[in-house]
Design the sequence.
């Protein structure tokens, strides 16, 4: 049976390296009547505390995503065949005003999601998670935030600025956007400012599975703990690519040693097929520090596994 959905352009007709890059060579949003999932870029990095450059992340991830293929054998789904996925282009965000940019991102994300379209956003620095959460929770109410990152991103301010890439989840928690019993960071590591950081973080509603616990617990137990924490709540997935070890993702602004392998991260994301994902982002890809697209290939595969986890599964055949 042929699919009613428009998928990636056919790589046996137009080579996959030809043409202007959309994510996975998917159709643009203008080219379909209705999208179930939109991949959208947010080229914004005015919220960074260290190396800049994530504003070039969306274009870099799209380039690396040319090689993605339609069938995901581990999840046994064809994400582009089972629902309409599109590339919605980039949201224009003012690089000289964080406040205006955050407003623009919230407005654009709200408009894109108005007819029920779910968003997978490619950043951009982690600041953008705040307006994305504001937009999605208008429809869903508070969400369980599943946050993959080396960093807590629940700090208070930098140089007095409340909206930065180190603060989105504190603001989101204060605004009542997140479910305080079900949110979780995975992959946390590296030095903090003080012990108080972890106390504040717990009060703001996050549990932590730290990077070193992959050693002691093992991957299967990490997945078990994650699913138990999320329960049956709607989940927003936020992936800071620096959750990966710098050997797997050098192209990022605030790298920390001792991170996850891409194989570990992809395995954890596959387990999310069991939960309801209402939106997701993949952020902090900074191409100036990347080599041979290593980071962008990882980010494009992370995005692909998220799209696969968001794919509806056929109902089991009735037993006769
Ligand atoms: N969200 C990312 N990638 N980094 C936050 C680091 C904040 C800091 O410089 O302390
Ligand atoms: Zn980070
Ligand atoms: Zn982050």
Sequence:
């Amino acid at each position: 049976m042929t699919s009613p959905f428009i998928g990636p352009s056919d790589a046996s007709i137009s080579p996959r390296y030809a043409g202007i890059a959309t994510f996975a060579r998917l159709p643009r949003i203008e080219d379909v009547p209705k999208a179930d999932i939109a991949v959208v870029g947010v080229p914004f990095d005015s919220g960074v505390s260290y190396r800049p450059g994530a504003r070039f992340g969306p274009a870099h991830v799209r380039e690396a995503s040319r090689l993605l293929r339609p069938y995901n054998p581990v999840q046994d789904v064809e994400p582009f065949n089972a629902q309409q996925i599109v590339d919605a282009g980039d949201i224009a965000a003012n690089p000289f005003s964080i406040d205006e940019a955050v407003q623009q991102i919230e407005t654009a994300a709200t408009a894109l999601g108005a007819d029920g379209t779910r968003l997978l956003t490619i950043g951009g620095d982690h600041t953008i998670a705040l307006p994305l959460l504001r937009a999605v929770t208008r429809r869903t109410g508070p969400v369980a935030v599943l946050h993959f990152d080396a960093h807590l991103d629940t700090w208070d301010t930098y140089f007095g600025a409340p909206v930065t890439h180190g603060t989105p989840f504190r603001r989101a928690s204060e605004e009542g956007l997140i479910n305080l019993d079900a949110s979780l960071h995975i992959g946390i590591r590296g030095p903090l400012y003080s012990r108080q950081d972890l106390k504040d973080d717990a009060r703001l509603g996050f549990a932590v599975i730290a990077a070193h616990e992959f050693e002691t617990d093992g991957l299967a137990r990490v997945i078990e703990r994650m699913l138990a924490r999320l329960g049956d709540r709607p989940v927003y997935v936020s992936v800071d690519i620096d959750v990966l070890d710098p050997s797997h993702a050098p192209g990022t602004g605030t790298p920390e040693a001792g991170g996850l392998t891409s194989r570990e991260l992809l395995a954890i994301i596959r387990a999310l097929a069991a939960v309801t994902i209402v939106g997701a982002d993949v952020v902090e890809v900074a191409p100036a520090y990347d080599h041979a697209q290593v980071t962008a290939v990882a980010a494009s595969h992370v995005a692909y596994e998220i799209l696969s986890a968001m794919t509806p599964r056929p109902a089991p055949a009735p037993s006769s």
In short: The first strand starts at residue 37 and ends at 42.
